[in-house]
Amino acid sequence: MTPTERLFDFSHALDDRVTVVTLLIIGSVLLFVPMLALLLRMSRLITSALSRELWVRTASWAVIVVLVVGPILLGAFWAILVIFALAVGGYIEYARITGLFRQRSVSWAVLIGITMVFFAVLDHWYGMFVAMIPLGVVAIAAIALIGDDPRGYVQRVALGILGYLLFAGCLGHLAYFGNSTYFRPLLLLVLTATALNDVFAYACGKLFGRRKLCPNTSPNKTVAGAVGALLLTTICVTLLGRPLLDHAPGLTIVHLAFGGMILSLCGQLGDLMLSSIKRDVGIKDTGVIIPGHGGLLDRLDSLLLTAPASFHFVGYFVGVGLDQQTRLISGA
User: Fold this and answer.
1) Tag placement on the chain: N or C end, fewer CB within 10 Å?
2) What is the DSSP letter of 178?
3) How far is the C-alpha of 71 from the C-alpha of 124, rounded, in Å?
């Protein structure tokens, strides 16, 4: 596959079995949930308010699928672009809820750093991609000195660095999957498994949950939900990722199961991390941009930690983009 084909060609979007099966699962879930809500409402097993909420949430998920999965199918360039937009939008929400937006110099430093990281991703320049993470931290610490005001220095630097690591570093790793020949199945597997991990935790918690997991951080999360999500997500990743073994001779079912466990744990930690941030700043949702869900961060929270964990897991055992031309722009 040439760089141009990887970036822009969509004629082979459905060649991989993982891509096809994942899309079928996504479509089935989007059709099943509203039908189930309708049946439960007709049977008077749920209230009309809950039924409406399920319909709104499903409609929002349908829009999210079109806006995220569509670009992935079209080509790596569009996938990287949409993840970049999510990183910028996520950081803007983060800066607003934490008050960091008031520190304009730090916020601009973070946004420029995010842009530089995603340029390195698009360029397939891994050396620059890796270097930009610590260099961005240095830049934020330096720029926060502007104004010669030591009051609040630690806070604005810490908030800036955390935001930079989450939205440039973590989501940058998700976008870097775009440099793999098999970027579509990899991205769809990570995104779908992360979303299902949240669903599994919610469902298992509602059905079997008794003991609270972290009541002060997230009162609705239970130990049963966490364990159920761990088991079901591990099975999901193992089954969905099975066809990828054909492209990676060194990878086994055991590796896939281990990767599923890592993804589930990191997804749940990401959810708890954002819950801690929201409780610390005293808000329920990070925004209202997604009906039935809240803000971008309310949907990105799990992905923030599953993205780098999944990238380095795949990178350790298989590698990402090793067979693709590097420095497409800077090396021209």
Assistant:
1) C
2) G
3) 18
Written as six digits, the tokens of 139 are 């830049």
42: Cβ contacts below 8 Å, ≥ 6 apart: none
- State the residue for tokens 């420095």: 327
Count CA atoms within 13 Å of residue 28 on its CB side: 8
Query: How far, in Å, CA of 131 to CA of 117, rounded?
Result: 9
Q: Could you read off the pLDDT of 265-290 as tens digits, one per residue? A: 999 999 999 999 999 999 988 988 88
Closest CA to 16 of 256, 241, 318: 241
Helices (H), the chain: 3-8, 17-42, 48-74, 76-98, 104-123, 126-143, 153-164, 171-176, 183-208, 223-240, 253-281, 296-317
Query: What is the pTM (predicted TM-score) of this model?
Result: 0.94
Distance of CA 7 to the CA centre of its chain: 21
Amino acid at position 77, single letter: F
Q: Give residue 181's identity as a one-letter amino acid code.
A: T
Mean of pLDDT values over 226-233: 96
* The two three-digit tokens of residue 144, written as one number: 């926060």
* Three-class SS state of 209: coil
pLDDT score at 4: 94
Residues of the chain above pLDDT 70, percent: 99
